[in-house]
Write a structure and sequence with these properties.
By secondary structure, the chain is mainly alpha-helical. The chain has four helices and two strands. It has a single domain, classed as Orthogonal Bundle (434 Repressor (Amino-terminal Domain)). A two-stranded antiparallel sheet has the order 1-2. Helix 1 packs across helix 3 and helix 2 crosses helix 3.
Length: about 80
């Protein structure tokens, strides 16, 4: 599932796999593996990729509607 999301973000920003891989300092083969679901990137890598593609990662509590993003959470509290 995450692979399809990564691919959509990349395509929406007109990046080739090679271009985005270079920005992430990874190989094109690694990015291809993530997009195809053969391997899974770390959350930090997903966050970095999303940032390059002008997306943010948001978690919404469906009961309280509290929104948490990687930008607004104090990681020391975790």
């Amino acid at each position: 599932m995450i692979g399809k999301i990564l691919k959509k973000m990349r395509i929406d920003n007109n990046f080739s796999q090679k271009e985005l891989a270079e920005k992430l300092l990874i190989t094109q083969t690694t990015l291809s593996g993530w997009e195809r679901g053969y391997r899974q990137p770390t959350f930090e890598t997903i966050e970095k990729l999303a940032s390059f593609c002008n997306y943010s990662i948001t978690f919404t509590n469906n009961v309280t509607n509290e929104i948490i993003t990687s930008k607004n959470i104090d990681r020391k509290d975790i």
